[in-house]
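Structure first, sequence second, as always.
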Protein backbone atom coordinates (compact mmCIF):
# COMPACT_ATOMS: atom_id res chain seq x y z
CA UNK A 1 0.00 0.00 0.00
CA UNK A 2 1.63 3.31 -1.05
CA UNK A 3 2.34 6.12 1.38
CA UNK A 4 0.92 9.33 -0.04
CA UNK A 5 0.64 12.92 1.05
CA UNK A 6 -2.66 14.71 0.57
CA UNK A 7 -1.91 16.25 -2.82
CA UNK A 8 -0.76 12.87 -4.13
CA UNK A 9 -3.95 11.29 -2.79
CA UNK A 10 -6.01 13.86 -4.69
CA UNK A 11 -4.07 13.07 -7.86
CA UNK A 12 -4.61 9.32 -7.43
CA UNK A 13 -8.36 9.77 -6.84
CA UNK A 14 -8.72 11.91 -9.96
CA UNK A 15 -6.74 9.42 -12.03
CA UNK A 16 -8.76 6.45 -10.76
CA UNK A 17 -12.11 8.03 -11.54
CA UNK A 18 -11.01 9.30 -14.95
CA UNK A 19 -9.82 5.81 -15.86
CA UNK A 20 -13.14 4.27 -14.80
CA UNK A 21 -15.55 6.91 -16.07
CA UNK A 22 -14.98 8.67 -19.42
CA UNK A 23 -17.51 11.36 -18.49
CA UNK A 24 -15.15 12.76 -15.84
CA UNK A 25 -13.30 15.82 -17.14
CA UNK A 26 -10.99 18.28 -15.38
CA UNK A 27 -10.73 22.00 -16.04
CA UNK A 28 -8.85 24.86 -14.43
CA UNK A 29 -5.94 27.26 -14.66
CA UNK A 30 -2.57 25.61 -15.38
CA UNK A 31 -3.87 22.12 -14.47
CA UNK A 32 -2.83 20.46 -17.72
CA UNK A 33 0.62 21.21 -19.06
CA UNK A 34 1.94 22.40 -15.70
CA UNK A 35 0.01 19.96 -13.50
CA UNK A 36 -1.51 22.64 -11.30
CA UNK A 37 0.04 25.22 -8.98
CA UNK A 38 0.26 22.59 -6.22
CA UNK A 39 0.84 19.67 -8.67
CA UNK A 40 -2.47 18.02 -7.84
CA UNK A 41 -3.09 17.18 -11.50
CA UNK A 42 0.47 16.46 -12.60
CA UNK A 43 0.67 13.83 -15.32
CA UNK A 44 -3.07 13.65 -15.93
CA UNK A 45 -3.17 15.57 -19.21
CA UNK A 46 -0.37 13.41 -20.56
CA UNK A 47 -2.33 10.29 -19.58
CA UNK A 48 -5.87 11.30 -20.54
CA UNK A 49 -5.36 13.99 -23.16
CA UNK A 50 -6.04 17.71 -23.46
CA UNK A 51 -9.71 17.04 -24.23
CA UNK A 52 -10.28 15.73 -20.69
CA UNK A 53 -7.73 17.78 -18.71
CA UNK A 54 -8.40 21.28 -19.95
CA UNK A 55 -6.24 24.34 -19.33
CA UNK A 56 -8.55 27.34 -19.05
CA UNK A 57 -8.02 31.09 -19.20
CA UNK A 58 -7.54 33.00 -15.94
CA UNK A 59 -11.28 33.46 -15.54
CA UNK A 60 -12.96 31.81 -12.55
CA UNK A 61 -16.44 32.91 -13.64
CA UNK A 62 -15.93 31.18 -16.97
CA UNK A 63 -14.57 28.03 -15.31
CA UNK A 64 -17.65 27.73 -13.10
CA UNK A 65 -20.09 28.52 -15.90
CA UNK A 66 -18.48 26.01 -18.23
CA UNK A 67 -18.56 23.36 -15.51
CA UNK A 68 -22.29 23.92 -14.93
CA UNK A 69 -22.97 23.53 -18.65
CA UNK A 70 -20.87 20.39 -18.84
CA UNK A 71 -22.66 18.87 -15.85
CA UNK A 72 -26.11 19.68 -17.21
CA UNK A 73 -25.12 18.04 -20.50
CA UNK A 74 -24.15 14.75 -18.82
CA UNK A 75 -20.45 15.12 -18.06
CA UNK A 76 -18.89 15.06 -14.59
CA UNK A 77 -16.61 18.09 -14.47
CA UNK A 78 -14.08 18.59 -11.69
CA UNK A 79 -13.15 22.26 -11.78
CA UNK A 80 -10.12 23.59 -9.94
CA UNK A 81 -9.96 27.13 -8.56
CA UNK A 82 -6.31 27.87 -8.06
CA UNK A 83 -6.67 29.50 -4.62
CA UNK A 84 -9.76 29.83 -2.43
CA UNK A 85 -9.46 33.61 -2.41
CA UNK A 86 -10.27 33.48 -6.13
CA UNK A 87 -13.39 31.37 -5.61
CA UNK A 88 -15.80 34.28 -5.16
CA UNK A 89 -16.33 35.02 -8.88
CA UNK A 90 -17.76 31.48 -9.18
CA UNK A 91 -20.58 32.24 -6.76
CA UNK A 92 -23.04 33.45 -9.42
CA UNK A 93 -22.87 30.17 -11.34
CA UNK A 94 -22.43 27.85 -8.35
CA UNK A 95 -25.20 29.30 -6.18
CA UNK A 96 -27.65 30.61 -8.78
CA UNK A 97 -27.35 27.70 -11.19
CA UNK A 98 -25.45 24.61 -9.98
CA UNK A 99 -27.14 24.53 -6.57
CA UNK A 100 -30.63 25.15 -8.03
CA UNK A 101 -30.61 23.10 -11.22
CA UNK A 102 -32.30 20.00 -9.76
CA UNK A 103 -35.00 22.15 -8.10
CA UNK A 104 -35.46 24.42 -11.10
CA UNK A 105 -36.03 21.49 -13.47
CA UNK A 106 -38.10 19.47 -10.95
CA UNK A 107 -35.49 16.71 -11.04
CA UNK A 108 -35.17 16.46 -14.82
CA UNK A 109 -31.57 17.72 -14.66
CA UNK A 110 -28.88 17.43 -12.01
CA UNK A 111 -25.51 19.10 -11.72
CA UNK A 112 -22.83 16.53 -10.86
CA UNK A 113 -19.86 18.86 -10.65
CA UNK A 114 -17.06 19.18 -8.12
CA UNK A 115 -15.44 22.54 -7.43
CA UNK A 116 -12.00 21.89 -5.93
CA UNK A 117 -9.87 24.54 -4.31
CA UNK A 118 -6.91 24.80 -1.95
CA UNK A 119 -8.14 26.37 1.26
CA UNK A 120 -6.78 27.94 4.43
CA UNK A 121 -3.52 29.38 5.63
CA UNK A 122 -0.15 28.24 6.83
CA UNK A 123 1.95 28.51 3.67
CA UNK A 124 3.00 32.19 3.95
CA UNK A 125 1.04 33.16 0.84
CA UNK A 126 -0.08 36.72 0.04
CA UNK A 127 -3.58 38.10 0.42
CA UNK A 128 -6.36 36.16 -1.36
CA UNK A 129 -4.44 32.88 -1.11
CA UNK A 130 -5.42 31.72 2.40
CA UNK A 131 -9.19 32.07 2.65
CA UNK A 132 -11.45 29.59 4.48
CA UNK A 133 -14.85 30.08 2.79
CA UNK A 134 -16.59 26.89 3.93
CA UNK A 135 -19.32 28.63 5.94
CA UNK A 136 -20.31 30.77 2.96
CA UNK A 137 -20.99 27.73 0.76
CA UNK A 138 -22.51 25.70 3.60
CA UNK A 139 -25.15 28.39 3.98
CA UNK A 140 -26.44 27.82 0.45
CA UNK A 141 -29.13 25.14 -0.15
CA UNK A 142 -28.28 22.60 -2.82
CA UNK A 143 -24.55 22.38 -2.17
CA UNK A 144 -22.46 19.79 -0.39
CA UNK A 145 -19.34 21.10 1.34
CA UNK A 146 -16.48 18.70 2.04
CA UNK A 147 -13.14 19.40 3.75
CA UNK A 148 -10.73 16.44 4.05
CA UNK A 149 -8.19 16.29 6.87
CA UNK A 150 -5.80 13.53 5.76
CA UNK A 151 -4.56 11.81 2.60
CA UNK A 152 -6.82 8.78 3.06
CA UNK A 153 -9.91 10.91 3.62
CA UNK A 154 -9.00 13.18 0.69
CA UNK A 155 -8.82 10.12 -1.58
CA UNK A 156 -12.06 8.50 -0.44
CA UNK A 157 -14.10 11.67 -0.11
CA UNK A 158 -13.03 13.02 -3.51
CA UNK A 159 -14.12 9.79 -5.17
CA UNK A 160 -17.49 10.09 -3.41
CA UNK A 161 -17.78 13.75 -4.41
CA UNK A 162 -17.19 12.99 -8.10
CA UNK A 163 -19.78 10.19 -8.00
CA UNK A 164 -22.38 12.35 -6.28
CA UNK A 165 -25.19 13.51 -8.61
CA UNK A 166 -25.24 17.03 -7.15
CA UNK A 167 -22.65 19.83 -6.83
CA UNK A 168 -19.90 19.46 -4.23
CA UNK A 169 -17.54 22.14 -2.96
CA UNK A 170 -14.31 20.30 -2.11
CA UNK A 171 -11.91 22.46 -0.09
CA UNK A 172 -8.43 20.99 0.25
CA UNK A 173 -6.37 22.30 3.21
CA UNK A 174 -3.28 23.80 1.59
CA UNK A 175 -1.24 23.39 4.76
CA UNK A 176 -1.82 19.63 4.70
CA UNK A 177 -0.85 19.05 1.07
CA UNK A 178 2.67 17.91 2.00
CA UNK A 179 2.61 17.98 5.79
CA UNK A 180 2.58 14.22 6.28
CA UNK A 181 2.09 10.91 4.48
CA UNK A 182 -0.01 7.88 5.32
CA UNK A 183 -0.87 4.60 3.68
CA UNK A 184 -3.64 5.02 1.12
CA UNK A 185 -5.10 2.06 -0.74
CA UNK A 186 -5.48 3.20 -4.35
CA UNK A 187 -8.42 0.86 -4.87
CA UNK A 188 -11.27 3.18 -5.86
CA UNK A 189 -13.09 2.74 -2.56
CA UNK A 190 -15.04 5.88 -1.68
CA UNK A 191 -15.69 7.09 1.84
CA UNK A 192 -19.24 8.05 2.83
CA UNK A 193 -20.30 11.66 2.50
CA UNK A 194 -22.57 13.36 5.05
CA UNK A 195 -21.03 11.63 8.08
CA UNK A 196 -18.52 12.68 10.73
CA UNK A 197 -15.54 10.48 11.56
CA UNK A 198 -14.62 9.75 15.16
CA UNK A 199 -10.82 9.80 15.17
CA UNK A 200 -10.28 9.25 18.88
CA UNK A 201 -12.49 8.09 21.73
CA UNK A 202 -12.66 9.96 25.02
CA UNK A 203 -14.82 10.60 28.04
CA UNK A 204 -14.02 14.12 29.26
CA UNK A 205 -14.51 16.50 26.33
CA UNK A 206 -15.50 16.39 22.65
CA UNK A 207 -13.19 18.22 20.25
CA UNK A 208 -14.92 19.00 16.94
CA UNK A 209 -12.86 20.17 13.97
CA UNK A 210 -12.19 19.72 10.25
CA UNK A 211 -9.47 20.26 7.68
CA UNK A 212 -6.04 21.49 8.70
CA UNK A 213 -7.14 22.52 12.21
CA UNK A 214 -7.46 18.83 13.07
CA UNK A 215 -3.66 18.63 13.09
CA UNK A 216 -3.47 20.99 16.08
CA UNK A 217 -6.59 19.45 17.60
CA UNK A 218 -4.98 16.02 17.67
CA UNK A 219 -1.77 17.45 19.13
CA UNK A 220 -3.84 19.18 21.81
CA UNK A 221 -5.55 15.88 22.64
CA UNK A 222 -2.12 14.28 23.07
CA UNK A 223 -1.07 17.09 25.44
CA UNK A 224 -4.32 16.78 27.40
CA UNK A 225 -3.82 13.04 27.75
CA UNK A 226 -0.60 13.79 29.66
CA UNK A 227 -2.79 15.66 32.15
CA UNK A 228 -5.25 12.77 32.45
CA UNK A 229 -7.89 14.36 30.20
CA UNK A 230 -9.44 11.97 27.67
CA UNK A 231 -10.59 13.95 24.63
CA UNK A 232 -12.82 12.54 21.91
CA UNK A 233 -12.05 13.92 18.45
CA UNK A 234 -14.71 14.35 15.75
CA UNK A 235 -13.67 15.11 12.16
CA UNK A 236 -16.73 16.77 10.62
CA UNK A 237 -15.45 16.12 7.04
CA UNK A 238 -18.80 16.91 5.35
CA UNK A 239 -19.97 20.25 6.70
CA UNK A 240 -23.13 20.31 4.63
CA UNK A 241 -25.25 18.31 5.17
CA UNK A 242 -24.02 18.13 8.76
CA UNK A 243 -24.02 14.84 10.66
CA UNK A 244 -25.14 16.38 13.93
CA UNK A 245 -26.16 13.02 15.37
CA UNK A 246 -22.54 11.88 15.78
CA UNK A 247 -21.61 15.12 17.56
CA UNK A 248 -24.64 14.94 19.85
CA UNK A 249 -23.91 11.33 20.74
CA UNK A 250 -20.35 12.25 21.64
CA UNK A 251 -21.35 15.26 23.75
CA UNK A 252 -23.93 13.11 25.54
CA UNK A 253 -20.99 10.96 26.71
CA UNK A 254 -18.50 13.73 27.52
CA UNK A 255 -20.71 16.63 28.59
CA UNK A 256 -18.35 19.21 27.10
CA UNK A 257 -17.46 20.49 23.63
CA UNK A 258 -14.71 22.61 22.07
CA UNK A 259 -15.03 23.49 18.37
CA UNK A 260 -11.87 24.35 16.43
CA UNK A 261 -11.61 25.96 12.99
CA UNK A 262 -9.25 28.40 11.34
CA UNK A 263 -11.89 30.48 9.53
CA UNK A 264 -12.86 33.83 11.04
CA UNK A 265 -14.95 33.58 14.20
CA UNK A 266 -18.08 35.58 13.33
CA UNK A 267 -20.57 33.38 11.47
CA UNK A 268 -17.95 30.67 11.13
CA UNK A 269 -19.30 27.15 10.76
CA UNK A 270 -18.48 26.44 14.38
CA UNK A 271 -21.30 28.77 15.35
CA UNK A 272 -23.75 26.52 13.49
CA UNK A 273 -22.55 23.49 15.43
CA UNK A 274 -22.76 25.40 18.71
CA UNK A 275 -26.32 26.52 17.88
CA UNK A 276 -27.35 22.93 17.15
CA UNK A 277 -25.85 21.83 20.47
CA UNK A 278 -27.84 24.54 22.25
CA UNK A 279 -31.05 23.46 20.52
CA UNK A 280 -30.67 19.70 20.67
CA UNK A 281 -28.05 18.88 23.31
CA UNK A 282 -28.33 21.54 25.99
CA UNK A 283 -29.17 19.11 28.77
CA UNK A 284 -26.09 17.03 27.96
CA UNK A 285 -23.75 19.99 28.44
CA UNK A 286 -22.01 20.41 31.77
CA UNK A 287 -20.35 23.68 30.67
CA UNK A 288 -20.68 26.24 27.86
CA UNK A 289 -19.42 25.29 24.42
CA UNK A 290 -16.05 26.87 23.60
CA UNK A 291 -14.80 27.92 20.16
CA UNK A 292 -11.17 28.27 19.08
CA UNK A 293 -11.07 30.06 15.73
CA UNK A 294 -9.29 32.50 13.51
CA UNK A 295 -9.84 36.21 13.98
CA UNK A 296 -12.23 38.57 12.20
CA UNK A 297 -9.44 39.91 10.03
CA UNK A 298 -7.86 39.14 6.69
CA UNK A 299 -5.28 36.38 7.06
CA UNK A 300 -1.99 38.16 7.85
CA UNK A 301 1.18 37.53 5.92
CA UNK A 302 4.24 35.43 6.67
CA UNK A 303 4.97 34.50 10.30
CA UNK A 304 1.91 36.37 11.55
CA UNK A 305 -0.20 33.56 10.08
CA UNK A 306 0.65 31.46 13.11
CA UNK A 307 -0.71 34.15 15.41
CA UNK A 308 -3.99 33.84 13.51
CA UNK A 309 -4.32 30.07 13.20
CA UNK A 310 -5.66 28.08 16.18
CA UNK A 311 -2.75 26.79 18.23
CA UNK A 312 -2.34 23.74 20.45
CA UNK A 313 -2.00 26.07 23.42
CA UNK A 314 -5.29 27.85 22.64
CA UNK A 315 -7.13 24.55 22.24
CA UNK A 316 -5.75 23.21 25.53
CA UNK A 317 -6.72 26.46 27.25
CA UNK A 318 -10.28 26.20 25.90
CA UNK A 319 -10.56 22.62 27.15
CA UNK A 320 -9.33 23.66 30.59
CA UNK A 321 -11.93 26.43 30.62
CA UNK A 322 -14.78 24.08 29.81
CA UNK A 323 -13.54 21.57 32.40
CA UNK A 324 -13.67 24.33 35.01
CA UNK A 325 -17.22 25.25 33.98
CA UNK A 326 -18.91 22.60 36.11
Amino acid sequence: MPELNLVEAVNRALAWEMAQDPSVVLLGEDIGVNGGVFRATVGLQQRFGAGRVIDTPLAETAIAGTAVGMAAAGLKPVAEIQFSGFIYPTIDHIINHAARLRYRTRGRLSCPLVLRSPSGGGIHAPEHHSESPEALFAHMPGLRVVVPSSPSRAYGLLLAAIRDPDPVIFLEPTRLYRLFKQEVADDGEALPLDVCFTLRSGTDVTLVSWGAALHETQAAADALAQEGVAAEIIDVATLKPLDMATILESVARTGRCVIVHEAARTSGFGAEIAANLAEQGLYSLLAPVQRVTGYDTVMPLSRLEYQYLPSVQCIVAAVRKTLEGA
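Margin note: Residues 148 and 154 are 5 Å apart (CA to CA).
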